């Protein structure tokens, strides 16, 4: 890897700035945002901000520098490529853009395990973005040791900079460019703060496998005996809700590494969706939105400056960014032992998958690589029936290497640890969306508890004829009929047609990984769809 003087770049940007706020704390950052008009205080003291035209990530505007390090290893079918010369021009132009502007510097950590840690410096003209990333990453001196040899990372954030596609080799005026060899990130043309957070994750996902660490887009918590559980799932599957359990301390809600020593949180905060958030359903998250220093992104405020979480007129992707230690039950130190349970969450809107299924390591890899859930009618314009969504490793936009790299690591970890993998469906039963009904949360929690406490080890199982996984015949407190989705449909033939449709969608999606992978994973699913 090319040696790079990060501190020289940081010092040069600071010297050219009109002023420098170096590692400012929460009160100063909140006051600066309010003073410049980029944020307003809610009735409870949180900072409310708008991100303008960009209310989510811009995956088509994300690039990785293609060089000797990344050329042979990056999954280029999933990542835009930028020439080193174009990246250097972009960096020079961003430096000119930032000259004479006030600048905020935050020196933070990523990786709660000092053996696998990154020293991240973010430079931005925006005080609220500085507050955001201070909330989301690990703050020095707050209980997690800092490694002397942590890998340096510099993120230059210029939200009002406009890229020149012809000059910078990008698609539009918005650009997120990552140089993996020098661990530099350039972000311009978007106010959406999630780009900063996810750029750190993308760097980690590139480097971690070479160090024997499996990077994971998942939440994690600890059981009563200190055993860890992992929760993978795309938006809307219940990952945040189900992993936030007062009886199970939270390690982290989004990004983790699995090393030979166990798991560790990459972050020091939470970036929770707030659409329809209520104190009754998610009291811990709701309380976090009422604290000073929390950043509320694109949340509509009512006439009394109280968040109206049900109002999605700006976007459904409303968010709250806050330090993890404001939650009442967390795993101190951000680490846990080797996982005993791995849960893949899906919200199957086709009404086909059972609410719980036990997976072999091979089946776990198949579902990990598939990363399935379904969008329902009405969530996006033009969607009138359920639509399957597949995201490899439950986080394809952030996985620079080929998904099979991560899949093989997961299989090895499952076999070495003996961890049991489960598929937990929080979607529909008795029919697809619009005809069936959503599986009730009480049943989902009972099924999850049974999977986590090992009480299903000796129960009777049936083999699903399509997917080949094992489904419990009975679980205490759960209607037995719910466990066999075909029995919940009034028309068995209609279920069979819907099931074969979903199987075919799985098979079609899986072909992108190549015939050798297609032949080795999910054999029952492949044969069933012939």
UniProtKB/TrEMBL annotation:
Q: What is its EC number?
A: 4.1.1.49
Top EC category: lyase
| Chain residues that bind substrate | 57, 192, 198, 319
- Give any Pfam family that matches: PEPCK_ATP
Q: Which domain of life is it from?
A: Bacteria
| Entry keyword set | ATP-binding, Cytoplasm, Decarboxylase, Gluconeogenesis, Lyase, Manganese, Metal-binding, Nucleotide-binding
Binding residues for Mn(2+), per the UniProt record? Answer: 198, 217, 254
Which cell locations does it reside in? Answer: Cytoplasm
Q: In which pathway does it act?
A: Carbohydrate biosynthesis; gluconeogenesis
Q: Identify which cofactors the protein needs according to its UniProt entry.
A: Mn(2+)
Q: Which reaction does it catalyse?
A: oxaloacetate + ATP = phosphoenolpyruvate + ADP + CO2
Q: How is the cofactor bound?
A: Binds 1 Mn(2+) ion per subunit.
Annotated function: Involved in the gluconeogenesis. Catalyzes the conversion of oxaloacetate (OAA) to phosphoenolpyruvate (PEP) through direct phosphoryl transfer between the nucleoside triphosphate and OAA.
What protein name does the entry list? Phosphoenolpyruvate carboxykinase (ATP)
